[in-house]
Specification:
alpha/beta; Nucleotidyltransferase, domain 5; five-stranded mixed beta sheet; 12 strands; 22% strand
Length: 289
Amino acid sequence: MPVRDLLSSGIGIVAAQHRLAIDVGNTRVKLGLFACPNSRPRGELPTCVERTTLLSGEPLPSELLAHWQSAVTNWLPPIIAGSNPSGIQQLLAAWPSSLGPQPQTVANTDDFPLTIRVDEPRRVGIDRLLNAIAVNELRRSDRPAIIVDSGTATTVDVVSADGAFEGGAILPGLALSAKALHEYTALLPLVSVPELGQATPEPLGRNTRAAIRSGLFWGQLGAVKELIARQAERDVDIFVTGGGGALLANFLENAHLSRDPFFWIGKNDNGRRHSAHGQRPTAGPTTCG
């Protein structure tokens, strides 16, 4: 619900604290304004009341962010994270003083309420770990989860039944695959992700463009399904997010789709109290970050 509607609805959410979370990816920068109640039960996520998306390198929408800031009370310091460190630094350098202090960078994974069971924990992409923190709020407590995040790259990651990040797989995303086909061949046209979303591609393409659409979509979906089948136990919760997530989710059995990237939620929630060693989170006060 937009801030302007919250202000007129009288439902009380504007009395909560609010935090701007910024996700800096390789292709896009996503900004979300979250309402953060003083307490909430496990499984209830912060509410994204406003959002906008920029292409990487575009200037910040300072006037829009100032409007968000003026429309709510209890504005918390913004936070920023993502898979593009140089993009984060560029955004921080361009942060206007009119919006207050620079966003706090979420970078120290040692402080995360998450056990990371991989060979080199500090080399895992922070977006993958924040996804896992968010999914630990959503999955059933007795089941592991698989997270499919379809962006510039597609990741298929496992969270164990005891809440630990177990690793996963990384493969080219839809747009990256399409760009590679176009740029590394002489004649193949560029097919965009929005074009893929117009209708489910026919598996049998009867012209070059249709054949590329088929290969991109069914190839990506097939790779994700195969990874899920090889990674998963019989009973597993599947969560799908990212720009291409909506295209894949309908073809993944029992998948839960989030149109807000999970790690926006994870960024807002990474300070929530958890017991040690990847145990389940305890309900209690949260500052939404």
